[in-house]
């Protein structure tokens, strides 16, 4: 480490390992990082884009926001307060966020308490136990999202029924979209090292109707188990007041804060985002949610009934493109 470097190699490893455990669509991990003293840039990696399913880059930016939040949590553990700038350099549009580390003090209260949940959190695609989430916990997750500038709306039974029909329409479209199917083949199924969603993390196939996304739909997966899923899933829609690239980044930070908070209460989550990948269906979800805000993520939450595999993560060295 040179005299101008602000972080040790171990500290860089802690920060970027935490970032790598953020959720991203198909676990593409569409980020890379540059470190300049106390400044960390979070960049969008265009080679990990999903042009068929995420044409506008909305979901990739949500992933970048989630990775940035994990960086903030790890920085808080190391004693650094953080401030943010969204898309700070017009000359470099690939820089999505810039994180500034303040001088080290003691572990930062609040954020640092979530650090232990970063590696525990994973997308759970199995059935939920028949134990309802307490109303006060639902409220706590909504507060977590609100602290990052987003809104979390829990759907009632009528809204869930309407959403289920929209999800079914999206699933049927997916099965007939060759570009999306080929794109998913690159990232989904089999054994994978470093990224993507391996077969072990797909979860069982539901016996009967279920509000769960089967990422392997359209593929031959003969070895997967079957399971009975819950009849009434707890479903929430994460929304933002505005609709632009900054809102997508903030949605990612809000998503990760609420997911880590949920994990601290042993609540698991998976995503039902397929309707949000189609403009007309996203408008329908917006109507179902009953507000003028923009839906960014649909979550299925609950207490997991089984254990499922975790998706792999790249080594932090593979995401670091510059450090001095």
From TrEMBL:
It comes from the Bacteria. InterPro entries: Nitroreductase-like (IPR000415), Nitroreductase/BluB (IPR050627). Gene3D superfamilies: NADH Oxidase (3.40.109.10). Transmembrane segments: none annotated. PANTHER family: NAD(P)H NITROREDUCTASE RV3131-RELATED, NADPH NITROREDUCTASE. This is Nitroreductase family protein.
């Amino acid at each position: 480490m040179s005299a101008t470097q602000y972080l040790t190699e171990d500290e860089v490893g802690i920060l970027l390992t935490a970032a790598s455990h953020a959720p991203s669509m198909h676990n593409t991990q569409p980020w890379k990082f540059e470190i300049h003293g106390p400044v960390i840039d979070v960049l969008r990696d265009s080679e990990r884009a999903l042009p068929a399913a995420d044409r506008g880059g909305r979901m990739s930016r949500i992933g970048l926001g989630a990775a940035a939040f994990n960086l903030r949590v790890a920085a808080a553990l190391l004693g650094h307060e953080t401030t943010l700038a969204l898309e700070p350099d017009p000359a470099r549009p690939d820089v999505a966020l810039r994180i500034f580390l303040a001088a080290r003090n003691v572990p930062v209260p609040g954020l640092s308490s979530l650090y232990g949940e970063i590696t525990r959190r994973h997308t759970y695609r199995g059935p939920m136990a028949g134990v309802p989430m307490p109303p006060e916990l639902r409220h706590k997750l909504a507060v977590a999202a609100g602290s990052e500038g987003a809104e979390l709306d829990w759907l009632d039974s009528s809204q869930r029924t309407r959403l289920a029909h929209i999800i079914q329409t999206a699933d049927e479209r997916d099965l007939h979209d060759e570009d999306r199917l080929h794109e998913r083949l690159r990232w989904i199924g089999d054994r994978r090292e470093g990224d993507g969603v391996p077969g072990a993390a797909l979860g069982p196939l539901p016996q009967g109707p279920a509000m769960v996304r089967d990422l392997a739909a359209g593929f031959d997966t003969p070895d997967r188990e079957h399971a009975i899923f819950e009849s009434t899933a707890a479903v929430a829609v994460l929304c933002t007041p505005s609709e632009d690239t900054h809102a997508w980044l903030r949605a990612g930070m809000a998503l990760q804060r609420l997911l880590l908070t949920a994990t601290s209460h042993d609540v698991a989550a998976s995503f039902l985002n397929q309707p949000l990948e189609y403009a007309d269906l996203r408008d329908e979800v917006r109507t179902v949610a009953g507000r003028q805000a923009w839906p960014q993520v649909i979550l299925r939450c609950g207490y997991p009934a089984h254990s499922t595999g975790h998706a792999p993560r790249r080594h932090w060295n593979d995401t670091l493109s510059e450090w001095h």
